[in-house]
Amino acid sequence: MELRHLRYFVAVAEEGHFGRAAGRLNIVQPALSMQIKALETELGGPLFIRTSRRVELTEAGKLLLAQARLTLEQVEHTRLAVERAMRGETGRVRVGFAGNAIFSGKMIADLRRFRQAHPDAEVIIQEIAPQQQVTAILTGRIDIGYTPDNSTTADPQIRVQLAGNWEIMAALCEDHPLAVHPQLTVDMLAGQPLVLYDAHDTHENLYILLAQRLGERFNVAHSSNSTLSVLAIAAAGLGLALIPAPLQQVNIPGLVYRSLNAPELTANLVMVSRVQEPGNAVTAYLAMASLV
């Protein structure tokens, strides 16, 4: 018994006529009659009582009609479910983010758009330190990461897409001697205890540029992979933090923000993912996030 046999049988049963059923199925009547006869032979008895004007179901035919409808409905449900999965409308997307990615607005906007377009897809969000995200993707813990660009993203198995670029600002306690200036220069940072993200390692552009400009007076006193830790250290007066501009949205008592007259110092936010991505939901998310 094949699915087409069930479809043919249901059409004849609902139309009560082989000719009309053949027209509905877009096949010739002799072929339809042959298929129904083959089905009856396989099942071992008649499914229809045939008259000159119409056909009626036997008791066995009535039973088969109920079961055939259930079977065909389940097949259609399965087909639609698989098609939705193939389009990425269902499935799972696991997103990792470094703390400052939230304040850029890009990640939140991407998540909202994906949720609106694919409400049945499961989305899991977790905070992961910048230099751990690539490993988390390659080991299957997450599918996509939002992170400041850093040396660990240079992996042939990882695709890197720019998600944002901002100027660098200074965050410092309100009674810091430099807080009286509305704008700071790089030279003012000489000798100051600086607070950097762990992502700004010795291979990262910000670190390299500061080291070149400040030389021996480049003083990294603290580093952290936590956005709140970086800001807390600065607010406590333990150092002057260099942060991407979107973080000035964070209001912490005793902390002030100052622009930095150094357009060459910028912070990149990137979206990292697998080059070979098997998941349709993840592929759909990446396609949507890449549009804006």
TrEMBL record:
GO molecular function annotation: DNA binding; DNA-binding transcription factor activity
HTH lysR-type domain sequence ranges: 1-58
Keywords: DNA-binding, Repressor, Transcription, Transcription regulation
Protein name listed in UniProt: LysR family transcriptional regulator
A Pfam family the protein falls into: LysR_substrate
Family: Belongs to the LysR transcriptional regulatory family.
InterPro entries to which the protein is assigned, alphabetical: LysR_HTH_N, LysR_subst-bd, WH-like_DNA-bd_sf, WH_DNA-bd_sf
GO CC terms, sorted: protein-DNA complex
UniProt organism field: Rahnella contaminans
